[in-house]
Amino acid sequence: MTFEIRYNQLGNSKKYQKKFQDLDMNFIEYVFFNNNGLMKDEKLIAQSIFELVQSSLSNKNNQPNYKFILFYLSIVNILDKNFDQAYFYSARIYEILENFNKANFFYKKIKIDNNLYIESQKNIAINKSRMGFFDEAEKKLFELKENYKDHSELLLAFAEFYRFEKKYTKAIKYYTDIISK
Question: Fewer beta carbons below 10 Å: N end or C end of the chain?
């Protein structure tokens, strides 16, 4: 069905709606149909799938199946290439899986006007450090600090970065700056 929606090959959405009602599959209805029973557009379907992913991740009782979640996040981004939250979630999952190159790939897709952009750029720097590129990571953090002077969370990024690298004197300096503000 997602393929048919993506390539405008869906003839009659009523045909699918009837099948789904017969099967009592409320989540399918939630993802693909609006309150009037009409087919949602791609962006709304992407939003609905993303909301289901968020819901599944908020359930603390279950260990998430990251491959399954990444699959659905990829569908979100196929349907809406501008859905930066899905890129961010994908990147975070790849960090958990310790695949920092793949995480950075998704962080780089987040657009500069999105509120997740600075956090993404900071995470790219931290991931570079985790991959053994300390100098490159430090340079990236300094560039961010220079370009976004009013973002105090970058001070914490420096403190954590230096602590992670066991450069405790530098880490203490940044933690002290944070406390004094």
Answer: C
